[in-house]
């Protein structure tokens, strides 16, 4: 496909944004404390150096603790100053070509800017309260080593995503690039249990999908106009659980965001026997089946609220079966509670209480115990007596017919039959 498609046109019709970036090269904000993390020595060890990022050209220079590096950062993306980040980490970044089909078009001219030979940094900042995470590439903004500017930013509004089983899901990922030429590529990867695979790879410069697995898609119009590189999962399955990597490439630079996906399935709960009837002295086994839930971590308790008591109490001695696997990847278990029925337990309410990540509130099922013979015949007792009487009536009627068949006398002929015989 020719590069100058509708999407390319969308990327060029934002002159206002470019003007604003030029007029307001940086958004003023409080300095951000970070750590520069390096591997040094043999054997390799981790060296951490304190860093202070200043988002305004302060005069005189900002004073910092001895041993702290100070960088003056221009952030036209606005991503590093849009939140109160709780953690910040810097590492050295090496600009280079990437030998992937969906990235080769970004550097096909084989001409790089001289600034790529200077020091570049990757930064990752996290806002735990808002669950915002930003990965950015900082490059030189002038002749001074302490002057940096954001060249590429990749951000996500979620670090952990809980996905309902069987539903459509969008994994959020946004991008901002200092170059408005439309030269970028997007790659989505999935990593689980040590295995990794490419789900979707898109060359934004050529406007061409290079890799695409069934069940995954992207909104390319929103990608080119708004920088929305989100991945759409058409139907969430348990196999989708794992780590998703949103990787953005621009010429010689790359940044990525990692998102953890956990598949959630709400359990189906049933409490047996239903209805709950017992005779005095009979051992009753309550069975609570919790079916089709995910993930596996779950807690099951039995409670009883005796007649006249204001609140239930926790029962001990609960046993639990091993979990079973269902075809859709969910789990099923059963929990058991035994007790001896007595007249004092008539009207007691037994509850199976389940706590699972799929629900913010505990889920439950309740049965009321009816003990036979307590407080006179109940409606249920009357129903049983009626059924027994109906059975006895049918049985006695059957015996009566058989008795007449074997021991009854032949019927006398009618008068008409007798008269015909005489004639």
UniProtKB/TrEMBL annotation:
Keywords: Cell membrane, Disulfide bond, Glycoprotein, Immunoglobulin domain, Membrane, Receptor, Signal, Transmembrane, Transmembrane helix
InterPro entries named in the record: Ig-like_dom, Ig-like_dom_sf, Ig-like_fold, Ig_C1-set, Ig_sub, Ig_V-set, T-cell_Activation_Regulation
Localization of this protein: Cell membrane
Sequence ranges assigned to domain Ig-like in this UniProt record: 166-260, 267-370
Gene Ontology biological-process entries: cell surface receptor signaling pathway; cellular response to lipopolysaccharide; immune response; negative regulation of T cell proliferation; positive regulation of T cell proliferation; T cell costimulation
Transmembrane segments: 382-399
One GO cellular component term: external side of plasma membrane
Membrane topology summary: Single-pass type I membrane protein
Keyword Endoplasmic reticulum: no
Pfam annotation, one family: V-set
Domain of life: Eukaryota
Coiled coil ranges: none
The protein's name in its UniProt record: Ig-like domain-containing protein
Source organism: Pyxicephalus adspersus
